[in-house]
Give the backbone structure.
Amino acid sequence: MSDTVLEAIHINKYFYDPVKVQVLTDVGFSLSRGEFASVIGKSGCGKSTLLYILSTMDTDYEGDLKIDGISMRQKKEVELARVRNEKIGFVFQFHYLLNEFSVLRNVMLPGEKLNKRTTKETESIAYEKLKILGIEKEALKRPNQLSGGQKQRVAIARALINDPLIIMGDEPTGNLDKKNSEIVFDIFRELAEVYHQSLLIVTHDNEFANRTHRIIEMEDGRIVKKGGMG
Amino acid sequence: MNVKLIFDVAMSLLAARLKQTVVAAIGVTFSITMFIALLSFMSGLNDLLDGLILNRTPHIRLYNEVKQAEHQPVELYSKGSPQYNFISSVKPSNEKQQIRNSAAIIDAVKKDSRVAGVAPKVVVQVFYNIGTTSLTGIINGIDVAAENRLFSFQNYVVAGNYMDLQNIPNSIILGIGAAKTMLVNPGDIVQITTGKGDHVQLRVVGFFQSGILDIDKVQSYTSLATAQKILGEANSYITDIQVKLHDLSLAPAMAKQYQQLFSVEATDIQTANSQFETGSFIRTLISYAVGITLLIVAGFGIYNILNMMIYEKMDGIAILKATGFSGGDVKRVFVTIALTIGFFGGLLGLLAGLGLSATIGQVPFETASLPTVKTYPINYNPTFYVIGGVFSLVTTYLAGYFPARKASKIDPVIIIRGK
């Protein structure tokens, strides 16, 4: 069990506006350390909704969520923020970098928030992560001076800064062209294979999903194919 | 908490909307400036107006009142017998207005640590003679040096040198109103008649102007010795002992104490001049009300700008929350922004307020009734600056708190999905 990083147990989720609609039905699966999994499904099938529950940002659901073996159900807002900070790295469709800070500082922000290391140490780690992603030369630029692909790589570096248990992605290649999508995918695969990083990526790009280690397929709020062992 | 990080994030957001931030800060600066200038000016004016009376009034005045003896002789006779005496037309006892044993009282009062100073006085009722007409007047025999030290006597002497009272025998400083009526100039001789009918000639060495016409028509000053000589009394003859305290608020209690201790009459300044405090209070209240109103308006400015900032920076807030900043952290970021605006705006406002009040203090302000005042009075009380500073921080904090709370409640899911 110590190898399980994330476990969803009988998760049900409803939307109440305008009428009560069940968007997730009895979703349950688990993800092991080092697994590179993708969640696919048609748009509206609830895959993003599931991701936000798994990421602890959405707390309005039934069932239980365990991250690193610890239940997230009873945790307070501040504690959940701490879990996100320490154990989860995010890559979104849009990069969401803060233009007021340099690229390096953007990467450092979650690390500074965690406050486990000195600023100097965080800075050198941030450099390291940028180096892994091949954009260390842009470290001192502002995000708005970078190309779309570069920005997304900065966002991945930011997700990596605290050496998270799991990286979650919501259509991370959705805004990128073929070439940059390829780069991002290769980075993800390298992270999984070389660094044994767990990844859970929501995508509607079947080509992308097919190359991941495991495909979780959703339809109408249910998991129809779990893939892998979980 | 990671204060530096919160501060850095706050500053980056500030830098992103620098123009609006500056405008908000200017709002605070302006209101604090006006607050300081208004209070300094109002308070200066208050002090001036109160000073017209209060500075020249002793905090405690000891005197001997003309009154009926408390125990009539018949009581001695009827003592012990079941008898009640009705006495009609009781006359005051035949006593001088002099304070008995004045030298000892003055010594005792001077030793009191609460007392700033003591000045004896002899009040003489006289008539100023102008040809065949006589004007009523009051001559105050004063200890010139003590009077000047405690009651700024020289500030009200508009012509001549006040020390001449002491240096030139038989000299008088006439009230300017009386002097005008008598058409005399410094160096002239005036003749007065005492209550007993004695004629005395005195040399005018200066004019006195208090700013209150009725006083200036009647009051004149001479030295203690001259006053005693006019009355034909010994040099222990004192009618009033004026006491000035370090702390004015102690006056009522001390007056009572002295009254018992020295068996004389004693009045305190609060009882004698209660209306002045009311006036000052109202004026101060108005100044504060205007100042606070200005600050509240500035507060709304800050509120608006922060709201706008939150809408513009929704993405940034969402990602901060997604990557581990709690709602509390986000709130602290925006409160920090507000307080930064308040701090720098307020600081600048305090400096500008000092500048503005100093400028007002240079504007000429001359009025016949206030001979010593040449420019508008300003009170540079540090308390105003402390209050102004605290107010600017409190208002900006409140103005920032509500937008900050809103920001802290932003749901990152909605924003991230919305793209």
About this structure: The longest strand of chain B covers residues 115-130. The mean pLDDT of chain B is 84. Residues 3-54+276-418 of chain B form one domain.
